[in-house]
Design brief:
alpha+beta, 43% helix, 4-stranded mixed beta sheet, two-stranded antiparallel ribbon
Length: 177
């Protein structure tokens, strides 16, 4: 991805073309229900990396309005989609740990009708998850030209304890060049 370019749905779906219909349809369902959402996870990260990777699911970050709360603490999804065309669909709620990225839903860039989370939102989510693949995704995003100052600033604000991890990933991306 060339720095300054907007995320592109086609780039995100390049390694998994069979996911196009499910991504579009689930996004439309969420939009029709008035649910704020943005593509995240591997597909969201793919929109910001030169070499996208495959994945086994589709992840959408969703606003609180995606869930109905019932007496006794029971919670249901307003759009109860957990699978579409045989592909798992995760609606990622804004838990307390993710509340720091909620404004990313408002800044999502819409590509071909599908909102894609901003790069800083995706990087923060992946830093908070901290799994090996998440860190590799961040490194690939950095190597693809993501704005490091923007990411440092966002991480400093939202997840300051993860800033040293981001700096190590920046070093790794630079070493790999």
């Amino acid at each position: 991805m060339i720095p300054g370019d907007e995320p592109d749905l086609r780039q995100a779906l390049r390694p998994v073309p069979a996911y196009e219909r499910p991504v579009r349809e689930v996004s439309k369902m969420l939009s029709d229900a008035g649910i704020r959402h943005a593509l995240v996870g591997a597909l969201g990260a793919n929109a910001y990396r030169d070499r996208p990777r495959t994945t086994e699911d589709i992840d959408f970050l969703v606003g609180d309005e995606a869930f109905e709360r019932h007496p006794g603490g029971f919670v249901t999804m307003r759009v109860p989609v957990i699978e579409f065309d045989g592909i798992d669909v995760d609606q990622v709620p804004l838990t307390e740990g993710l509340r720091v990225i909620e404004e990313g839903l408002a800044r999502a860039h819409v590509s071909e009708g599908v909102p894609i989370a901003p790069v800083d939102t995706i990087v923060i989510m992946k830093l908070l998850a901290g799994r090996t693949q998440d860190l590799a995704d961040i490194e690939a995003i950095l190597a693809s030209g993501a704005d490091r100052d923007l990411l440092r600033s966002a991480v400093r604000k939202a997840a300051p304890k993860r800033l040293s991890t981001l700096e190590k990933l920046i070093e790794n991306a630079d070493r790999a060049r």
